[in-house]
DNA sequence: TACCTGTGCTAAATCGATTTTTCAAATTAA
DNA sequence: TTAATTTGAAAAATCGATTTAGCACAGGTA
């Protein structure tokens, strides 16, 4: 059960290794190999079950045909939705994917990028997190194929594709306002990421647009580096201190889930005591009674677009990217909570 | 920004490439390289930031230092819990991991195994699903390092590690019985997988052990290849047709989640109208009021054990596996639903 | 007849490492 | 003093492919 090599196939077909290589790589015509010989080679390769040795090909061609996908958490729902599409799309293009997660460890982000470099991935798909600026910056400088997803670093000229966060929140807040609600809280987290500031901007401006005063005390910024139980407690206090609140908008599904727990613990009924809306859908929001309204991110579309943009960069001939920054609209899904 | 090669380092240090290789691979003593020279080489390598070319190393050594992890669904909760541990444990051993999912496509399972073979993974971690028998059989025959997780194929002599399914269900049913419940339903799915039959065996035997009659009509076997909405409907009918039921045990979390929807639609209150317990925990079960009691699988432990067993196989010298089949106990988590 | 030209393929170089072999110089043994 | 051994490192082979250069041979041309 020894591995079959190109040489073996050549011997079986009675030709030189190079001839086999030409034929199997579709360069038979170009190298003026007779159809007769080409046929024979194809046949032998087929029936012997020959598979080229990936590492050898990689070494010679300098291409690993592998993409690196870096996400924050491999067990998060964003990754779960993303990975499948990324994988199938990559495969369609003849690439496979290695996944890495920073697991909320700022330092690890930088290491990962080096790690992937050492492993020779041909391109990077990255969801930016704090601490990865330098690494990303370096990739850009070295002109490595790269697409950021879900966020980007202002000031670093890397292609990105993400949800139109501002517009998404606007859709949501407008809906709440349309229902006659004006006392609307916004819960976010103290991370310096563009998608969060955009979401907050959406909240603030949409309130203004509707002539609703923006109260600072209605904006709760939870600490990211905290036990979940602490955040839960803080959220509960926030709700208790502002009993007049009619609605609450969570900037991420992670926050929304904590929110559900807090709301449940306080015995509040949705939507009558409190209307709830959340950015980014999650299985739980579909099931949790009475169903939580959300702004759904077009994750599938993000994945496909990202792969497209990456493939464009990998096709050396194609020149610079047509679209550098892509923003895709989110979709509001209304459920019982509003 | 050209890649630094071993040769470059050799030139910089004023020695031959082979010498550099020996030193950097810790074979300096063995090859009697003078400490002085070794020091110099180390220094040059360090400060030049040299990183060996993975593909070249792989080609020469025949080891890719990569493991293949095949799961049913990359967006499932089982994978989510598994992946992180697998990845960190693998990394600790100097391996990285490529993930693949069969996405419930029986045929794809077989292809995947070939695909990974072509990519030259050094070992396989597989959660068996229908349709993969042949592929796994082949790996065993070719003596490829392999560990099955979560299930196994009776008749195929491959190492595996999984939850003690029988015992887990037993814990759960005993708890229900202790609460004085006797009319207990068991919902499973029509897949021919050992973990499901084991769970069912646990249900049947534990009832018998408590002198409770096992009624066939209390066992519902849903069709796997069905729309979720169809399963939901069937489950609803089942509950309506057996209104006397006091408790229901779901064999998988996937089933349990559908169950929650059915129970909610019928307006049943847990645990008074119906006590609910489910095999395999899930985020939703923690949050969904009043909290769903579950038998939690020791996924972390499964992952660690699996990697251990795989590493043992990869250490050629070590001989055959000490433990071939490992069963780890599940843990019952009681919540409001019972 | 001698000289190109095109055809059809083979030989050899290459990718970047590891590993085996070789070899001069220093040391020891006879 | 000469042969045998040890030391320290370089040279060369190798992994399995791709790719460039080269080489017979047939046919056409001057």
Automatic annotation (TrEMBL), chains A, B:
InterPro entries: HTH_LacI (IPR000843), LacI/GalR-like_sensor (IPR046335), Lambda_DNA-bd_dom_sf (IPR010982), Peripla_BP_I (IPR028082). It holds the Pfam family LacI. GO terms for molecular function: DNA-binding transcription factor activity; transcription cis-regulatory region binding. SMART domains: HTH_LACI. Keywords: DNA-binding, Transcription, Transcription regulation. Residues 4-61 form the HTH lacI-type domain. This is LacI family transcriptional regulator.
């Amino acid at each position: 059960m020894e591995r079959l090599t190109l040489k073996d196939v050549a011997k079986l077909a009675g030709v030189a290794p190079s001839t086999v290589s030409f034929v199997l790589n579709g360069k038979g015509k170009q190298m003026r190999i007779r159809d007769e010989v080409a046929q024979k080679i194809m046949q032998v390769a087929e029936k012997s079950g020959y598979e080229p040795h990936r590492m050898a090909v990689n070494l010679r061609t300098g291409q690993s045909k592998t993409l690196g996908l870096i996400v924050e958490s491999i067990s998060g729902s964003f990754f779960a939705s993303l990975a499948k599409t990324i994988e199938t799309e990559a495969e369609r293009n003849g690439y496979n994917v290695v996944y890495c997660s920073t697991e909320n460890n700022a330092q690890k982000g930088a290491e990962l990028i080096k790690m992937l470099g050492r492993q020779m991935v041909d391109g990077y798909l990255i969801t930016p997190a704090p601490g990865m600026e330098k690494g990303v910056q370096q990739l850009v400088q070295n002109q490595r194929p790269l697409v950021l997803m879900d966020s980007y670093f202002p000031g670093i000229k890397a292609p990105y594709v993400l949800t139109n966060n501002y517009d998404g929140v606007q859709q949501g807040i407008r809906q709440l306002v349309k229902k006659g609600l004006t006392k609307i809280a916004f819960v976010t987290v103290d991370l310096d990421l563009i998608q969060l500031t955009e979401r907050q901007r959406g909240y603030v401006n949409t309130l203004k647009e509707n002539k609703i005063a923006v109260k600072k005390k209605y904006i709760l910024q939870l600490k990211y580096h905290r036990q979940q139980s602490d955040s839960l407690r803080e959220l509960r206090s926030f709700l208790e201190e502002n009993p007049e609140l009619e609605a609450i908008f969570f900037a991420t599904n992670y926050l929304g889930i904590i929110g559900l727990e807090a709301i449940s613990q306080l015995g509040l009924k949705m939507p009558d005591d409190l209307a709830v809306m959340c950015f980014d859908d999650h299985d739980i929001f579909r099931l949790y009674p009475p169903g939580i309204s959300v702004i759904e991110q077009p994750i599938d579309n993000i994945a496909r677009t990202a792969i497209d943009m990456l493939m464009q960069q990998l096709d050396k001939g194609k020149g610079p990217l047509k679209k550098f920054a892509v923003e895709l609209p989110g979709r509001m899904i209304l459920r019982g909570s509003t």
